[in-house]
Design brief:
24% helix; alpha+beta; 2 domains; 18-stranded mixed beta sheet; elongated; 3-stranded mixed beta sheet; Jelly Rolls; 31% strand; 404 residues
């Protein structure tokens, strides 16, 4: 096929101006594999226009291909794509990338300076740098001590930060917080600390029992400086990922406003943002018991790979479904991962991470599939979302207006 015809079909498809016949011709071209190099060059050129210095490599192709398969299986009326896997990864890298970037409900953007394997397990901790590209001088995560003092963790020097309730509080060279409890040092009243992350920040903490917690943006966790008695209790608002040290004699309890989670020793993700209509607990390994604080409905015990969904409306049953663990924990590894995620939920995630207000003047009805690195700039992220054709937008300072 003449290269000019290939370029013409590519642009028509990308701009959504092609006829049904042209669309079928273009998809047949992708499926044939005869013009892989030409299509890859066109795709790289298109991506360069939106994100200079960004290219697609083999590992990213795996993630793209996975997303295309999900999209092909989607029941959404707009999806008329039917591609079957072939032996050549190269051909399907091109097919996946073209389809996703062209905006059939999917998006993908990868920073070439942070090449990471896309098929991450929930246990990995290899995130691209978590930066806020919207503005400088972003608020720092705050450690609030029992006596009311507050420590700005971004500016605090490494080493010992304070001593409270028989525990030494330290910040290591990686910027992580940890507690070392001195046995028998505190037999008095239990003291509580609170870690708060503003929009645009994440933070990792090791609790007094050795359990690890990753706190997402706009979240908080309150905990004692020492776990005494026969239970370990913390309170969370927002989203957190837990790796709990096993202690059969002391179950670990996570309290939120609308949902409680009881564990023995396990890894799980908890999403309890107050602006979300559904709260979720996704179990990676171990076992957890999910209940409502006020009772009234049957609690649910999760198995690894399951997710509990708690409606904020009181009295509704707790639903259990199969979880997409990679999607639930992607934020911890430095990515947004959308798997049929409603547009308004996507915008709430964008708002929390970039610390911006999002005003939607029109209906947002589309569902998104794909991945975005959290170190992309706000403009890059919004632009790639807008490529679906769902909306136009404008950015003024820290306000994003979605136009009809």
């Amino acid at each position: 096929m003449d290269i000019n015809r290939i370029e013409w079909l590519f642009e028509r498809y990308f701009d959504k101006t092609c006829t049904e016949g042209e669309r079928q011709e273009f998809l047949q071209l992708i499926a044939s594999g005869e013009q892989d190099e030409a299509l890859k060059a066109l795709l790289d050129s298109k991506l360069q226009h939106y994100a200079p210095d960004r290219k697609i490599d083999n590992k990213e192709a795996d993630a793209l291909f996975s997303a295309v398969l999900k999209k092909a299986e989607s029941p959404e009326p707009a999806t008329v794509l039917s591609l079957k896997p072939k032996p050549s990864w190269k051909k399907w890298m091109v097919a996946a990338a073209v389809v996703l970037v062209a905006g059939l409900g999917g998006i993908y953007l990868m920073n070439s300076n942070n090449r990471k394997e896309e098929k991450k397990t929930a246990m990995q901790d290899q995130a691209p740098a978590a930066t806020n590209p919207v503005h400088t001088g972003k608020p720092s995560p705050i450690l609030r001590l029992a006596d009311g003092r507050e420590i700005s963790l971004d500016t605090a020097a490494d080493g010992t930060l304070a001593s409270q309730g028989g525990a030494t509080i330290s910040k290591n060279k990686d910027g992580e917080l940890s507690y070392h409890h001195h046995t028998g040092a505190n037999n008095g009243q239990v003291q509580y600390n609170t870690l708060l992350t503003p929009k645009g920040s994440q933070y990792k903490i090791t609790l007094p029992d050795g359990s690890k917690v990753w706190l997402n943006a706009a979240s908080g966790i309150s905990y004692p400086t020492a776990f005494t008695g026969n239970m370990r209790k913390v309170t969370v608002q927002g989203e957190a990922y837990f790796e709990i040290v096993k202690d059969p004699q002391k179950p670990f309890i996570v309290n939120t406003e609308k949902m409680d989670v009881e564990v023995m020793g396990t890894s799980f993700n908890l999403n309890s943002y107050l602006d979300e209509p559904i709260l979720r607990t996704s179990l990676v390994e171990g076992s957890v018991r999910v209940s409502r604080p006020a009772g009234g409905v049957d609690p649910q015990i999760l198995k690894p790979g399951q997710q509990a969904m708690v409606d904020v409306q009181p009295g509704t049953p707790i639903k259990v479904q199969t979880a997409d663990i990679d999607a639930a924990t992607a934020w911890k590894n430095g990515f947004f991962h959308f798997d049929g995620t409603p547009a308004r939920e996507v915008m709430r995630q964008i708002s929390r991470w970039y610390d911006v207000d999002i005003i939607a003047n029109g209906r947002l009805t589309k569902h998104f599939r794909g991945m975005l690195p959290r170190n992309a700039s706000l403009d890059e992220a919004i632009h790639m979302l807008s490529l679906t054709g769902e909306f136009k937008y404008k950015i003024e300072g820290r306000t994003v207006t979605i136009l009809p």
